[in-house]
Design goal:
Largest sheet: 5 strands, mixed
Radius of gyration: 32 Å
Number of helices: 13
Shape: elongated
Strand order of the largest sheet: 2-3-1-4-5
Number of strands: 5
Distance between the termini: 71 Å
Length: about 350
């Protein structure tokens, strides 16, 4: 008996249809092909299934059976193991005294990596790779390029490395003395590289989503739209304040600052602004959750956590800069810890009692 074995290594059949695998029998495989073609007409595994049915119809000089086996989406090792298990199930369903040989049908080299797994279970007469014929004209080439740009998997593996390569040249130019026409080519290459990186990472989709979210927040009256803007402004002020503190510390110190001193100066000058930004944004989010009817008491932990972290960072930075004694450091560390614990326990108790009263009512 010849077993025409259609291989779907990434389990498109299982993920896109309700068909259970393995699929055994010519009619069952044809039904699976129709179901997959209905769910995703562009999936190449559709052609694999139809090719298996075609081979079963054309090989009339011997007994032929058709089956479709699938792997899993993700790890190649796990996919090969899953295909091997389904092949064992197919062979168990056939239950024939005849010697079984297999003709493997795939849609590319990736699926053919499972051939050794199948060969360990049944002799293989051959491997048939299905290649769909396409018109070799300009329109077909344009469509192929467009599909590559729109496919998240392909653009992430092709466009991102290409964009990085294109950015190497302008970065090299920036390290040299600027001259003509180097900057012109560097800027052009940098713009092209940034565009390809944006396409590869799907930045345009993120921007569209961000604009849509901002528009929705604007017209639905979400408080977070205002608090996020205020928090962003506070972060900018905090960054500027941190840089001023760093410059003042460098001026006051005769020796060069170490990495810890630099971080301490930046934190000491900006922590109060960053804390204000965190409290502002968290209160806006809590307000929106309350207005939406999804408020939980534990959400109020956020501003207290921000205060606790800010107190700890202020104490550490002040101690390393020599602005505070060890006692102040111990006070801020203890106070920050107690504030976080107190807020967590308090709101947990309030929330549990609130839910208990709601259930009783």
């Amino acid at each position: 008996m010849l077993l025409v074995l259609c291989v779907d290594l990434d389990d498109d059949i299982g993920r896109k249809t309700d068909v259970e695998t393995p699929v055994v029998g010519r009619e069952a495989v044809e039904d699976a092909a129709v179901a997959l073609a209905t769910a995703d007409p562009e999936d190449s595994d559709v052609n694999v299934l139809f090719e298996g049915c075609h081979l079963a119809d054309s090989l009339t000089d011997e007994r032929v059976e058709v089956a479709a086996v699938t792997g899993v989406d993700g790890s190649d090792v796990a996919a090969n193991r899953a295909v091997g298990e389904e092949v064992d199930r197919v062979l168990a369903q056939l239950a024939t005294s005849e010697d079984i040989r297999a003709l493997v049908v795939t849609d590319g080299a990736q699926d053919e990596s499972v051939v050794p797994v199948i060969r360990s279970r049944v002799p293989i007469d051959g491997v048939r790779r299905v290649v769909v014929r396409q018109a070799q004209d300009l329109e077909s080439m344009y469509y192929t390029i467009k599909q590559v740009l729109d496919d998240p998997e392909t653009r992430g593996t092709i466009l991102v490395p290409l964009g990085i390569l294109l950015l190497i040249y302008p970065l090299t130019i920036l390290a040299e003395v600027l001259g003509f026409p180097g900057p012109v080519f560097g800027v052009a290459s940098a713009l092209l590289g940034l565009y390809i990186l944006a396409r590869g990472f799907g930045v345009e989709e993120w921007l569209d989503s961000a604009v849509a979210s901002a528009r929705e927040a604007l017209f639905t009256g979400r408080v977070t739209l205002i608090t996020y803007v205020v928090a962003f402004a506070l972060l900018i002020i905090g960054g500027a304040s941190g840089m001023e503190t760093l410059e003042a510390t460098r001026t006051a110190e005769s020796a060069a600052l170490g990495a810890i001193d630099v971080l301490a100066a930046l934190a000491y000058g900006s922590v109060q602004w960053i804390a204000a930004a965190g409290i502002t944004s968290s209160l806006g989010r809590v307000t929106d959750e309350y207005l939406a009817g999804e408020f939980k008491w534990r959400y109020l932990n956020a501003p207290f956590y921000v205060l606790a972290i800010a107190a700890v960072l202020h104490g550490l930075s002040a101690f390393f800069l020599g602005e505070a004694e060890l006692g102040y450091l111990a006070l801020t560390l203890t106070g920050g810890t107690l504030l976080g614990l107190a807020s967590t326990l308090s709101f947990a108790v309030v929330e549990s009692r609130w839910e208990r009263d709601a259930e009783a009512a």
